[in-house]
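re: the backbone from monday

yeah here it is again, tokenized this time
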């Protein structure tokens, strides 16, 4: 297959590209390599991908209207849109990048799919769309009309855009709501990374909601297997949304304890209240993802955390 993957310099886009490159697909990768977090990490991920002869990289914004010209002479079977402005807290101060990347970018890529007659479009959504929903586990059947951050609102909007294009232009769309993904090459703005870094550097860590948070931490390899399941899925529908989460929420305090044990360093914890835009608990209902995508998250944090810490120490050359 010839696959267009966006966000390839990012955490999930990088791992997804690796899988499809190893399986000998042609991958066209897009990323604007922006400075939301450490650009070196993004460039180092890209260097890994550029080792593959079947990978071509385009440094572009997904909302760039010239994409359509750029790809007009290429044969593409499938688009996987993993580029986004991520992060709940950042969206409080930088609203426009969320609309440009997550909404306009989604429209632009679906326009590309329409023009090039690409029949399948897979995109990343987020557990954030469940907002303050109280019914657990979160199911894709629930209404999600109460986002509590602009990030969540932009992701919900991107789902609505996909719904519309799938009906109007016969593009099969699959939305994947990821739940707190972690693992090697992970994002520096996320808890696993921040805790590990600060504990090693003997700095304080903020423990939100006074430690009473639960997150459905999901290991990157399980997520990539779920994406692979979506690529393989042969089912007749216009648009469908699936949860990709571990379906086993962990208590934040236990998660931190595991990192401390693995590092053999005690954390300096500062208990603080929950941040605006954050939700106290996430928990994925994955019945349909198991059935349709053969999604089977099997990595417990006891296995995933040591793997992340091993990568972190190697990458940052820490003894
Ligand atoms: N990591 C998680 O826990 C998580 C959870 C829920 C949803 N998601 C979603 O999964 C997807 C991938 O997330 P990630 O964790 O890999 O994030 P990431 O920030 O590591 O990767 C996103 C990549 O997209 C690129 N990008 C951003 N805006 C762009 C634009 N307008 N044009 C081109 N490139 C652009 C960035 O440079 C980055 O390399 C995103 O849609 C994100 O919202 C991630």
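seq for it, each position gets an aa:
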């Amino acid at each position: 297959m010839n696959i267009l993957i966006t966000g390839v310099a990012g955490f999930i886009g990088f791992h997804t590209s690796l899988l499809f490159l190893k399986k000998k697909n042609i991958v066209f990768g897009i990323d604007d390599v922006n400075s939301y977090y450490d650009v070196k990490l993004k460039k180092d991920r890209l260097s890994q991908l550029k080792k593959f002869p079947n990978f071509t990289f385009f440094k572009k914004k997904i909302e760039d209207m010239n994409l359509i010209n750029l790809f007009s002479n290429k044969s593409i079977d499938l688009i996987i849109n993993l580029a986004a402005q991520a992060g709940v807290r950042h969206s409080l101060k930088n609203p426009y990048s969320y609309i440009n990347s997550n909404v306009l970018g989604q429209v632009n890529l679906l326009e590309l799919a329409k023009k090039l007659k690409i029949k399948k479009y897979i995109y990343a959504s987020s557990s954030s769309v469940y907002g303050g929903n109280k019914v657990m586990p979160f199911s894709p059947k629930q209404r999600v009309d109460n986002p509590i951050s602009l990030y969540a609102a932009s992701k919900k909007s991107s789902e609505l855009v996909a719904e519309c294009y799938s009906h109007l232009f016969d593009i099969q769309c699959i939305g994947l709501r990821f739940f707190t993904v972690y693992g090697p090459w992970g994002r520096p703005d996320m808890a696993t990374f921040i805790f590990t870094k600060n504990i090693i550097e003997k700095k304080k860590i903020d423990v939100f909601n006074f430690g009473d948070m639960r997150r459905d931490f999901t290991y990157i390899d399980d997520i990539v297997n779920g994406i692979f399941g979506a690529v393989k899925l042969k089912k007749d529908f216009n648009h469908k949304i699936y949860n990709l989460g571990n379906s086993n929420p962990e208590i934040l305090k236990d998660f931190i304890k595991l990192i401390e044990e693995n590092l053999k360093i005690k954390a300096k914890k500062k208990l603080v209240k929950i941040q605006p835009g954050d939700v106290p608990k996430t928990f994925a209902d994955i019945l349909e993802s198991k059935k349709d995508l053969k999604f089977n998250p099997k990595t417990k944090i006891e296995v995933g955390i040591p793997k992340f810490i091993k990568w972190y120490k190697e990458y940052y050359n820490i003894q």
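The mean pLDDT is 97. Residues 120 and 172 are 5 Å apart (CA to CA).
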